[in-house]
Design a protein that fits this description.
The chain is mainly beta. Helix content is 11%, strand content 37%. The longest helix has 14 residues.
Amino acid sequence: MRLRRIALVAALLLAGSQAPAQAGGRRGIELERLDRGLVAAATSEGVFLSWRLLGPEATGHSTTGLTSAAFQVYRDGRRIATVTDSTNYLDRAGTATSKYQVAPVHGAAARPPPRGLPTMSTCR
């Protein structure tokens, strides 16, 4: 039953709402323009990172929720981790001055952070 509810909520989130007719009589899906929403918070165990899974990135669902591609996590411009099946990460080596970026993985090769990727400073 819980899995069915999760799948229903996911389908509704991905579907969006029908937008009113646009010029020329076209109809479309109305979605918010959200960014990754990366948050970095200093804790006693390191820096906790959390970010959004954007609708087009969802690939299905599991018993724990939506599934997606992996994400690469960057600290101060260097890749420190690849995160799978999650949208959060605890950087035990992070500090209050660390700056973070997160990007979805496209292909298997390690890459530098994409240009224009938003940077999040650590919240204290």
